[in-house]
Specification:
Structural class: mainly alpha
Shape: elongated
Order of helices and strands: HHH
Number of helices: 3
Helix content: over 70%
């Protein structure tokens, strides 16, 4: 049981790191940086998938 829990923790961290790398790669302009600030706050409120969609919508709107 301990091994399974540890593996789940490692996998979650890997996903989080990958997500952050992809997120940073998406930041190209000042507009994107503004979106990053917005999504950092919205991530607390929404699920990951929703915040990504939300981020994309806000980027197009700005």
């Amino acid at each position: 049981m301990k091994i399974v829990v540890t593996m789940n923790k490692i996998n979650k961290e890997k996903i989080e790191i990958t997500k952050n790398i992809l997120f940073i790669q998406n930041l190209k302009t000042k507009k994107d940086n503004l979106c990053a600030l917005i999504s950092k706050r919205t991530k607390i409120l929404y699920t990951t998938i929703f915040s990504v969609i939300c981020w994309k919508i806000k980027c197009k709107m700005i």
